[in-house]
């Protein structure tokens, strides 16, 4: 079993490494630059180019409900079909060079780093096992959600979510109602908890690279975080208590009580190394790199991704198959996320291009609502950044509205409310959908592979609209007026 596991993942790691390195010799000799055309294309595209992306979202929402067997067998093919539904017409209209550039740029600068980071965190945290008697009663569950919320800003929402989701699911294995616990876990640990530092969520890391002080978000987003966490943890405790009583206050099967024990602690050192690698790639800029089909790959990012792959391999080597078996560790959730997000990233290219065009693109009217007459409206910045972050990548959405607000980090930090609204919108509202933030879909996949019947895409949004949106309304009245 262990040999098969290592062989399978080793092949995956080798493939990813080759993707990063294979074109380097050719890239040094490549000439020309399509970057300017790609930057300008968003001004030329209308809303119809976003139809494949909408189709991808609808497929994620509808197929698991209407044709679950088909979806489980062919979700990768469906994702590829929607990616091609964008790419083929784009190449026909704008030429193969620009089309290929867009895909290569998205793959090498966004998708591959995204998948490598997820793979690394998924593998490392899958080698950490909390053993002992942990019973998923309301107080215990609320405590785990609180711990995860506090950890998310310091080890990233993805890291905290991957570390805690398996122990939480195991603790509630005897419970009838479990989906609500995973939903609140996504709300708090996979999203809202990551608002205090650039470690927490990619948009804040981009803000840090743009000149926002490291602890600015800690200082200004602490009260919004406490407000949201207090409401959501209280709501969760009341809901879980009611469901716990409805179940008859169930107890797990009788077994000898054992003290809590953490196994695979060496993986925690690897997890700390992941944080160091990500931070180093953001603060170290050697001004070196190479090009792959005119796409510039910076040296620090290449070294970061190779280091992450090395940490993934190290985790596989030092973690026994028995320990991973205790965690019910399987590769299917990673495979599902990799294939589905490949379709999302490619089909999303025109939507992101239009959004980046700002006031000169097809969404000019929408983007312009944030600063009517040049006057910043923090409430509109919060809601527009948040709504678009719910369905699109929250990192470029953050940058778009950061630039709409002037793009001057020093001025925005002094103004406080506008930058606060953009930051909170990008991080908090990533919880509105399964695709709003990287760990959401992964948490859902892990939960389903563990036997938890999770809400559908739209079913989840009923939870988020019913619970989060009223909270965001109160947040607007308190902090963005």
TrEMBL record:
Keyword Signal attached: yes
UniProt KW Membrane keyword: yes
Pfam families: CitMHS_2
Superkingdom of this protein's organism: Bacteria
Name of the featured protein: Transporter, UIT6 family
Signal peptide location: 1-29
Keywords: Membrane, Signal, Transmembrane, Transmembrane helix
InterPro entries the record matches: CitMHS_2 (IPR031566)
Transmembrane segments: 47-67, 111-132, 144-165, 177-200, 220-244, 265-286, 306-325, 337-359, 379-404, 416-437, 457-480
């Amino acid at each position: 079993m262990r040999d098969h596991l290592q062989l399978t993942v080793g092949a995956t790691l080798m493939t990813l490494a080759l993707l990063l390195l294979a074109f380097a010799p050719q890239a040094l000799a490549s000439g020309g630059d399509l970057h300017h055309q790609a930057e300008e294309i968003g001004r030329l595209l209308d809303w119809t180019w976003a139809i494949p992306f909408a189709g991808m979202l609808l497929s994620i929402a509808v197929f698991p409900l209407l044709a679950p067997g088909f979806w489980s067998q062919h979700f990768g093919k469906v994702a590829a079909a929607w990616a091609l539904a964008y790419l083929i017409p784009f190449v026909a209209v704008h030429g193969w060079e620009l089309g290929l550039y867009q895909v290569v740029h998205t793959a090498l600068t966004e998708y591959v780093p995204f998948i490598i980071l997820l793979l690394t965190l998924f593998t490392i945290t899958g080698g950490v096992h909390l053993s002992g008697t942990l019973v998923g009663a309301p107080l215990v569950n609320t405590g785990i959600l609180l711990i995860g919320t506090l950890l998310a800003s310091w080890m990233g929402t993805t890291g905290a979510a991957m570390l805690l989701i398996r122990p939480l699911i195991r603790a509630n294995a005897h419970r009838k109602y479990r989906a609500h616990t995973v939903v609140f876990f996504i709300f708090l640990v996979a999203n809202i908890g990551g608002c205090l530092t650039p470690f927490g969520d990619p948009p804040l890391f981009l803000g840090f690279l743009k000149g926002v002080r490291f602890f600015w978000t800690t200082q200004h987003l602490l009260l919004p975080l406490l407000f949201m966490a207090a409401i959501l943890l209280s709501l969760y405790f009341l809901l879980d208590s009611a469901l716990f009583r409805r179940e008859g206050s169930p107890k797990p099967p009788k077994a000898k009580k054992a003290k809590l024990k953490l196994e695979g602690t060496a993986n925690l050192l690897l997890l700390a190394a992941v944080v160091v690698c990500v931070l180093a790639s953001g603060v170290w800029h050697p001004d070196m790199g190479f090009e792959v089909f005119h796409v510039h790959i910076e040296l620090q990012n290449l070294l970061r991704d190779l280091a992450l792959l090395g940490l993934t391999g190290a985790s596989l080597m030092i973690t026994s198959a028995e320990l991973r078996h205790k965690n019910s560790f399987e590769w299917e959730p990673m495979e599902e996320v990799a294939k589905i997000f490949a379709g999302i990233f490619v089909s999303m290219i025109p939507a992101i291009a239009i959004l980046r065009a700002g006031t000169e693109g097809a969404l000019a009217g929408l983007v312009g609502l944030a600063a009517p007459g040049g006057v910043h409206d923090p409430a509109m910045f919060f809601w527009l950044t948040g709504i678009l972050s719910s369905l699109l990548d929250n990192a470029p959405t953050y940058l778009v509205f950061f630039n709409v607000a002037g793009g001057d980090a020093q001025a925005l930090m002094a103004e406080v409310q506008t930058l606060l609204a953009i930051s909170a919108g990008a991080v908090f509202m990533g919880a509105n959908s399964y695709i709003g933030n990287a760990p959401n879909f992964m948490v859902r996949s892990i939960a389903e592979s563990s036997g938890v019947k999770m809400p559908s895409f739209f079913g989840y949004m009923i939870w988020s609209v019913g619970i989060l949106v009223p909270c965001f309304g109160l947040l607007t009245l308190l902090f963005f007026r």
